[in-house]
Amino acid sequence: MKLQRLKLSPSIFAHLIAIALCLIILTWIMKLWCADLKIPFCYAGDAMIFNALTKGIIDNGWCLHNPYLGMPIGHDMYDFPLSQPIDFMLIKLISIFAHDYAMTLNLYFLITFPLTTLTAMLVFRHFKVSFGASILGSLLFSFMPYHFFRGVAHLNLSAYYMIPPMVMVILWVFAEPSHLFRDKDIDKNRLLSKKFTISALICLLMSFAFIYYPFFSCFLLLIAGMSSCISHRNKYPLLNSFILISIILVGVLANMSPTLIYQHENGKNLQVLDRIPAESEIFGLKIIQLIKPVDGHRIASFAKLSDSYSRTAPLVNENTIASLGLIGSIGFLILITWAFFRISDKLNYKIHDILNYLCILNLSSVLLATIGGLGTIFAYLIFPQIRAYNRISIFIAFFSIFAIILLINQLISKSIKIKRSLLLHSLIVCLILLIGVFDQTNGSFVPQYDSIKDEYMNDKIFINNIEHIMPENAMIFQLPYVPFPEYPPINNMNDYSHFRAYLHSNSLRWSYGAMKGRSGDVWQRAVAGMPTENMLKTLSQTGFQGVYLDCYGFEDGGAKLISAVKQNLKVEPLISDNGRLYFFDMTEFNKKMGANYSDIDSIPITFNSGWYGTEDWSGIPTCWMHSDGTLAAFSPRNLTANISLNALSFYRNRTLEVYSGDNLVARVNVPTSFLNVSAPVTLEEGLNILRLHVPEGCDRVCDIMELNSSDPRCLSIAMQNITVT
Question: Which residues cross the membrane (predicted)?
Fold first, then answer.
């Protein structure tokens, strides 16, 4: 036992050195001595959704439902699954000790660096790479530009620590000509080999990462299985890859099951995650973006070169962050060259084989992700939801770094007996590390600590002031209306900006966050579109007790709406110190209104599920329905009413069935010109869902040859002018 401890201690020491160096470098790059971990590293854009999800985990135990958002219905994430439970479980674990959402998220982002270093180090050591080269490779991979550019805003992508173990499994598939799950030398009583058990566990964990990484892993497993099957002339490598792919798919399916169950019960949401095949080219990968200098390079001439390309080249978007850095680019070019020229007589045969495998994986990744490549074919023929193929660049980065350190390792192993060579090679490794880190990082990776803190504290004080005057669980309506998720900026207001109210609140409920296309969202859209007086009456009868305005979301800075709200409520607003946010207390207005509401006129009836996006037909909002759809109404009390709408059938006549609850209240033959349809309905207090059904189904526009259209939608009936009388 003592001998074993002595044998293990150099390995443990090397891993501790790697982690310590990682933390030191990370502190230097991000200037962490300036950071307040209770202030978010990023307080804008996509980072806001991860801020909100983290707070949701702390407030509610998990992130799929949040009763403090999306009022009056609530916030559900089922239609927009981020599919990364492994990250959320670690966030939940950290929150037990941190309690604060900002500290929890900041710590998790920071932890992804040593986690990546550790997993990469373990993989390199598994393949007998020397300690020095392993430390070098693991640190270079941890500090890829991709890690910082993705950051908290794309936390699901910056947490890429499962990639090294996954690549190890893929290399096992390459190298193993027989059953991966049975070893020839193991005990016959043992069902599975150790290697297969580890492979299965890694694949299962990978299935819990963001969907892109499991997808790329399946592709690379398939490539490994096919290549090994051909080279070994044996079916088992392909069988091995299929088994491991199946494990990933089962894990992904289990991960997606809440979404699948929810959509089975509530219908598919056609307005969320609506991707088209052409996006696979827009967000494809370019080879030049892998080898160009990182954006904002520390050397001015390099930065200018990168900026010149990004400003003038077409199809430059998030793929601009695919840069591998100088060391990674050399590794990438070595792997490209390896496909044509190999120096097998000068390399250890094991290193030679691994370089062969990495070469195949590298070329396959480029062929998949490049613009017009295999990914585009897959998007057009099979599945367009995977669109940002440039994200495979982090896999390519690992292949490239792996190739470099294998060659460095070979150099060290051949000259290790030369006097003082160990010291020399240690110095060379340190020099390469310094060059690599200097080249791969820049000053923009330091969060704007002071400006973020100023804005954060401004919002915190403002929301705290609202909480002091509002009762617990009061509902606040947020303006302007902004669909959630994925919506372009409105004037000077970025997407997800409305989350800042929730992030500083402990006892209030906010309207923002209702899932786009679902009943809460369409209700909000209808209410926000009303004249100010009617809007406030509707909010009052629904139970809202305040109105929150973000002036950045209005072309006139909100002046017109602020004046109208002030005139109707007859109260002065609370204003944030920076003048951006306004809050109106509706308490006195609600008391005055009492029960003096028009029962019907102020009830919005809106498109709910089963509809395509709203279109403007001569100024009239109109929606096309799939074969089934629903309408949503929020009623202040039990009512008997009559719903009226204009309906038009696409291409041919169809039958429209209207259901109130389980009761069929109307069956109408709808022609290809607008027809008025009316039916009696019974509305209960609260949310009501009216169901519409077309027995003949829908027709796909692109399948009707005489229309000569590429529109992929399947349409049945268009509706407009929906009213309740």
Answer: 12-30, 105-124, 130-148, 155-175, 195-224, 236-254, 321-343, 355-382, 388-409, 421-438
